[in-house]
């Protein structure tokens, strides 16, 4: 009899812990990185580089897919922008330019803007759920009165039987933004305008 009560109490505690874990928010610290080669266009010229977060807010979605859920997923602009800045400077350096954060009259500039980062629940099937992720970056190059603006979208649909934990969500979003960075900085027109 006591054993049955203990087992029932243990099962109740375990179920409660699992439900609490599902409802907890995820504050993700991302570190996306570019992984593809970039066009070689520069000859050491200085380029002003700036990264900007232009999202409407830091909450990118919920783990349950419900808009009323407390299981929100957040990505802080204060943490993400310096990492985007680092990757933008690294890309410009790899192109053959000399990145700086100081603006100057007549100096070419590159602004990398995070327009959107989203995490939504996709279609549900028996035992399997989906997460739909989307990142949209804009790269704007300005040189000698000419402007080139490119928009680069990366999407991913991830199926899962067990809801992703914080580390898995961070890894998926790092890969997603990394893909958008690859698309942006491998764009030959961006490099060509900076090199004019």
N- to C-terminal distance: 83 Å
| Rg from Cα | 22 Å
Unreliable stretches, pLDDT < 50, 5 or more residues?
Answer: 9-22
> Order of strands side by side in the largest beta sheet?
5-2-6-7-8
The biggest sheet, with number of strands, parallel, antiparallel or mixed sense and barrel status, is: 5 strands, mixed
Sketch the topology as an H/E string, one letter per element.
HEEEEHEEEEHH
Strand content: 25-35%
Number of helices: 4
The global form is elongated
Number of strands: 8
Question: Approximately how much helix is present in the residues?
Answer: 25-40%
Structural class: alpha/beta
Task: State mean pLDDT (0 to 100 scale).
Answer: 88
Topology:
Blueprint: H1 2-23, E1 26-28, E2 46-53, E3 59-62, E4 72-75, H2 77-94, E5 98-100, E6 109-121, E7 129-143, E8 146-160, H3 166-185, H4 188-195
Parallel strand pairs: 1-4, 2-5, 2-6
Antiparallel strand pairs: 3-4, 6-7, 7-8
Report on the structure:
The longest helix is centred in the first third of the chain and has 22 residues. About 7% of the residues have low confidence. It is built from 4 helices and 8 strands; from the N terminus they run αββββαββββαα. Helices cover 35% and strands 33% of the residues. It is of the alpha/beta class and 196 residues long. Strands 5-2-6-7-8 form a 5-stranded mixed β-sheet. The chain has a 3-stranded mixed β-sheet with strand order 1-4-3.
Question: Key features?
Answer:
three-stranded mixed sheet; alpha/beta; 4 helices; 8 strands; 196 residues; elongated; 33% strand; five-stranded mixed sheet
């Amino acid at each position: 009899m006591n054993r049955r009560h203990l087992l029932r109490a243990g099962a109740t505690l375990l179920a409660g812990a699992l439900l609490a874990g599902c409802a907890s928010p995820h504050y993700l610290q991302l570190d996306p990185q570019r992984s593809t080669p970039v066009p070689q266009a520069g000859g050491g010229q200085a380029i002003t580089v700036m990264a900007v977060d232009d999202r409407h807010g830091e909450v990118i979605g919920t783990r349950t897919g419900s808009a009323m859920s407390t299981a929100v997923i957040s990505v802080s602009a204060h943490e993400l922008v310096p990492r985007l800045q680092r990757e933008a400077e690294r890309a410009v350096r790899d192109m053959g330019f000399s990145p700086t954060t100081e603006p100057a009259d007549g100096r070419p500039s590159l602004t990398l803007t995070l327009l959107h980062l989203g995490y939504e629940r996709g279609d549900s099937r028996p035992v399997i759920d989906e997460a739909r992720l989307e990142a949209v970056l804009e790269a704007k190059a300005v040189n000698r009165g000419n402007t080139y603006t490119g928009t680069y979208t990366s999407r991913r649909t991830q199926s899962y039987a067990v809801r992703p934990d914080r580390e898995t969500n961070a890894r998926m979003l790092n890969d997603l933004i990394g893909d958008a960075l690859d698309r942006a900085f491998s764009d030959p027109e961006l490099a060509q305008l900076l090199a004019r």
